[in-house]
Protein backbone atom coordinates (compact mmCIF):
# COMPACT_ATOMS: atom_id res chain seq x y z
CA UNK A 1 0.00 0.00 0.00
CA UNK A 2 1.09 3.51 -0.75
CA UNK A 3 1.37 5.94 2.04
CA UNK A 4 0.22 9.40 1.12
CA UNK A 5 2.62 12.13 2.04
CA UNK A 6 1.27 15.29 3.58
CA UNK A 7 4.36 17.19 2.47
CA UNK A 8 3.59 20.14 0.19
CA UNK A 9 5.61 20.96 -2.88
CA UNK A 10 6.81 24.55 -3.58
CA UNK A 11 8.19 27.55 -1.70
CA UNK A 12 6.95 29.12 1.48
CA UNK A 13 5.98 32.78 1.57
CA UNK A 14 9.11 33.62 3.55
CA UNK A 15 11.38 31.97 0.95
CA UNK A 16 9.66 33.89 -1.85
CA UNK A 17 10.01 37.20 0.02
CA UNK A 18 13.72 36.59 0.64
CA UNK A 19 14.27 35.75 -3.04
CA UNK A 20 12.42 38.89 -4.18
CA UNK A 21 14.45 41.02 -1.73
CA UNK A 22 17.75 39.60 -3.01
CA UNK A 23 16.66 40.15 -6.61
CA UNK A 24 15.63 43.75 -5.81
CA UNK A 25 19.01 44.48 -4.19
CA UNK A 26 20.87 43.10 -7.20
CA UNK A 27 18.66 45.09 -9.59
CA UNK A 28 19.29 48.33 -7.66
CA UNK A 29 23.06 47.72 -7.67
CA UNK A 30 23.12 47.04 -11.41
CA UNK A 31 20.98 50.11 -12.05
CA UNK A 32 23.31 52.35 -10.02
CA UNK A 33 26.41 50.98 -11.73
CA UNK A 34 24.85 51.53 -15.15
CA UNK A 35 23.82 55.07 -14.25
CA UNK A 36 27.35 55.92 -13.08
CA UNK A 37 28.87 54.44 -16.26
CA UNK A 38 26.51 56.46 -18.48
CA UNK A 39 27.24 59.68 -16.55
CA UNK A 40 30.99 59.08 -16.90
CA UNK A 41 30.65 58.44 -20.62
CA UNK A 42 28.69 61.67 -21.13
CA UNK A 43 31.25 63.65 -19.12
CA UNK A 44 34.17 62.20 -21.08
CA UNK A 45 32.41 62.95 -24.36
CA UNK A 46 31.89 66.58 -23.28
CA UNK A 47 35.55 66.91 -22.24
CA UNK A 48 36.74 65.51 -25.55
CA UNK A 49 34.56 67.91 -27.56
CA UNK A 50 35.72 70.82 -25.36
CA UNK A 51 39.34 69.81 -26.09
CA UNK A 52 38.66 69.83 -29.84
CA UNK A 53 37.04 73.26 -29.59
CA UNK A 54 40.00 74.69 -27.65
CA UNK A 55 42.50 73.25 -30.15
CA UNK A 56 40.48 74.61 -33.08
CA UNK A 57 40.37 78.04 -31.44
CA UNK A 58 44.15 77.97 -30.99
CA UNK A 59 44.64 77.21 -34.68
CA UNK A 60 42.25 80.03 -35.63
CA UNK A 61 44.13 82.48 -33.41
CA UNK A 62 47.45 81.50 -34.97
CA UNK A 63 46.06 82.03 -38.45
CA UNK A 64 44.50 85.45 -37.70
CA UNK A 65 47.70 87.30 -36.91
CA UNK A 66 49.53 88.81 -33.95
CA UNK A 67 47.33 91.91 -33.55
CA UNK A 68 44.14 89.85 -33.26
CA UNK A 69 45.35 87.69 -30.37
CA UNK A 70 43.27 89.32 -27.63
CA UNK A 71 41.12 88.58 -24.60
CA UNK A 72 37.54 87.74 -25.38
CA UNK A 73 34.74 85.27 -25.28
CA UNK A 74 32.32 83.85 -27.76
CA UNK A 75 29.53 81.34 -28.06
CA UNK A 76 29.60 78.37 -30.39
CA UNK A 77 27.16 75.64 -31.32
CA UNK A 78 28.92 72.35 -31.87
CA UNK A 79 27.75 68.73 -31.59
CA UNK A 80 24.19 69.83 -30.81
CA UNK A 81 25.35 71.77 -27.74
CA UNK A 82 26.03 75.41 -27.01
CA UNK A 83 29.53 76.18 -25.77
CA UNK A 84 31.18 79.23 -24.23
CA UNK A 85 34.81 79.94 -25.16
CA UNK A 86 36.85 82.33 -22.96
CA UNK A 87 40.27 83.58 -24.06
CA UNK A 88 42.78 85.21 -21.70
CA UNK A 89 45.94 86.64 -23.25
CA UNK A 90 49.04 87.84 -21.38
CA UNK A 91 52.31 89.15 -22.77
CA UNK A 92 55.27 87.11 -21.53
CA UNK A 93 58.65 88.77 -21.24
CA UNK A 94 60.53 86.22 -19.15
CA UNK A 95 60.69 82.46 -18.74
CA UNK A 96 62.58 80.41 -16.18
CA UNK A 97 65.92 79.36 -17.60
CA UNK A 98 65.93 81.96 -20.40
CA UNK A 99 68.32 84.92 -19.94
CA UNK A 100 66.55 88.28 -19.52
CA UNK A 101 68.81 89.83 -22.15
CA UNK A 102 66.99 87.92 -24.92
CA UNK A 103 63.99 89.98 -26.13
CA UNK A 104 60.80 87.96 -26.26
CA UNK A 105 57.60 88.75 -28.16
CA UNK A 106 55.49 85.94 -26.76
CA UNK A 107 51.92 85.80 -25.55
CA UNK A 108 50.46 83.25 -23.18
CA UNK A 109 46.99 82.29 -24.39
CA UNK A 110 44.61 80.43 -22.11
CA UNK A 111 41.44 79.10 -23.75
CA UNK A 112 38.71 77.72 -21.49
CA UNK A 113 35.70 75.88 -22.89
CA UNK A 114 32.50 75.34 -20.92
CA UNK A 115 28.94 74.41 -21.67
CA UNK A 116 26.86 77.54 -22.08
CA UNK A 117 24.53 76.58 -19.23
CA UNK A 118 27.52 76.01 -16.85
CA UNK A 119 30.00 78.79 -17.66
CA UNK A 120 31.58 78.70 -14.20
CA UNK A 121 32.73 75.09 -14.71
CA UNK A 122 35.06 74.85 -17.72
CA UNK A 123 35.38 71.32 -19.05
CA UNK A 124 38.76 71.96 -20.64
CA UNK A 125 41.44 74.66 -20.44
CA UNK A 126 44.28 74.85 -22.95
CA UNK A 127 47.32 77.04 -22.36
CA UNK A 128 49.62 77.79 -25.27
CA UNK A 129 52.38 80.25 -26.07
CA UNK A 130 52.44 82.18 -29.33
CA UNK A 131 55.47 83.99 -30.64
CA UNK A 132 55.14 87.02 -32.89
CA UNK A 133 56.81 85.10 -35.70
CA UNK A 134 54.30 82.21 -35.38
CA UNK A 135 51.18 84.32 -35.89
Biggest β-sheet strands, sense, barrel: 4 strands, antiparallel
CATH architecture: 2-Layer Sandwich
Query: Whole-number radius of gyration?
Result: 30 Å
Rounded mean pLDDT score? 88
| Helix-strand category | alpha+beta
Count of discrete alpha- or pi-helical segments spanning 4 or more residues: 1
- Fraction in beta strands: 25-35%
Helix content: 25-40%
User: Which topology does CATH recognise?
Assistant: Pantoate--beta-alanine Ligase, Chain: A,domain 2
Give the overall silhouette: rod-shaped
Order of helices and strands: HEEEE
Uncertain spans? none
Alpha carbon gap, first and last residue: 105 Å
Supply the number of structural domains. Answer: 1
CATH C-level category: Alpha Beta
Number of strands: 4
* CATH-defined superfamily: GSPII I/J protein-like
The largest beta-sheet arranges its strands as 1-2-3-4
Descriptive account of the structure:
It is built from one helix and four strands; from the N terminus they run H-E-E-E-E. Helices cover 39% and strands 27% of the residues. The protein has one helix spanning 13-64; strands spanning 72-78, 81-92, 106-115, 124-131. With 135 residues, the protein is an alpha+beta fold. A four-stranded antiparallel β-sheet has the order 1-2-3-4, with helices on one face. It is rod-shaped and about 105 Å long. The protein has a single domain (13-131), classed as Pantoate--beta-alanine Ligase, Chain: A,domain 2, CATH 3.30.1300. Strand 3 and strand 4 form a beta hairpin. The chain starts with 12 loop residues before the first helix and ends with a strand.
Amino acid sequence: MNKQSNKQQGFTLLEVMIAVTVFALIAVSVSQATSIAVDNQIHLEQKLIACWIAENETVLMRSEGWDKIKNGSKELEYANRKWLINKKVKDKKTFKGVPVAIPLDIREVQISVALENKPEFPLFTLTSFMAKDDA
